[in-house]
Amino acid sequence: MKLYILNGPNLNFLGIREPAHYGSVTYAQLLEMIASHCRERNIEAVCRQSNHEGDLVDWIQEAYKEGADGIVINPGAYTHTSIALLDAVKSVMLPTVEVHISKVEEREDFRQVSYIRTACVATITGHGVKGYLEAIDLLLERGAGKV
Ligand code: DQA
Question: What are residue 99's DSSP bridge partners?
């Protein structure tokens, strides 16, 4: 099984940015956690992060072209603004799980909108960085490549 694990803007600053919301694990440590989790489950994980919306669109399309079985995405603030990411996920028809480290539903009003959510098979919020591992397991249990 091959999964794309995509992170949007400012998630490269994990461990530095607002620890009360996002905790103390750094992005590098998150990548290690994902790598070891996926190694144990024989999953190939392609991990990417960008502060630029178009890069995320390109990588969602790349996941399709490369024959990935699913996508885990934390779109960061683009969650609340990006129709382009919604359209990209709809275009590729790959099972996609939306992850948020913080409990977005208990935060500001502007975080209550998620454009991408309607195209996702599940959303995990407020479980900290463990949410990424849960999303991976969810896709694994669901089976490869089925929307
Ligand atoms: C976030 C929540 C978003 O509202 C915020 O803009 C982020 C991170 C999360 O992981 O909790 O950048 O997606």
Answer: 124
Residue 68 — pLDDT band, cuts 50, 70, 90?
very high
Nearest CA to ligand 1 atom 8: 76
Q: How far is CA 122 from CA 8, 56, 58, 99, in A?
A: 18, 19, 22, 9
Q: Which two tokens stand for residue 75?
A: 């779109």
Tell me how far the alpha carbon of residue 9 lies from the centroid of ligand 1, in angstroms.
9
- Element of type H or E holding 35: helix 27-40
C-alpha to C-alpha distances, 67 to 10, 63, 120, 137, 145, nearest whole angstrom: 28, 6, 18, 19, 9
The model carries a pTM of: 0.96
102 lines ligand 1 (CB under 6 A): yes
- The finding on whether 10 has its CB within 6 A of some atom of ligand 1 is yes
